[in-house]
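FW: tagging you since you asked about this chain on Friday. Here's the raw sequence from the shared folder, copied in full. Didn't touch anything.
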Amino acid sequence: MNGTGQQQDQRLEQAILELLDGRAPTATICPSDAARAVYEGDDDGWRALMEPARRAARRLVAAGEVEITQGGHRVDPDEVRGPIRMRRLR
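HL: got it, structure written out here
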């Protein structure tokens, strides 16, 4: 991976953790929240960061920082399809 991609990945991971830190312990966020926080434009270019944000969430799950939920229930990040939410690991 090139330096720019690695920096983007680190910014997405940091954005996820910072967004969660600013909310109630049980609150969830969407990957789009992190994508919007990292994207520096004012158009919908953040959409290109959606899959990188989902990958960042999976890395944070592996690191024991967050869990991925769907329909309010914890799900396996390698199995889930469709819309997801993230919250701090309980």
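FW: The first strand starts at residue 66 and ends at 70.
HL: agreed, and The mean pLDDT is 94.
FW: great, closing this out.
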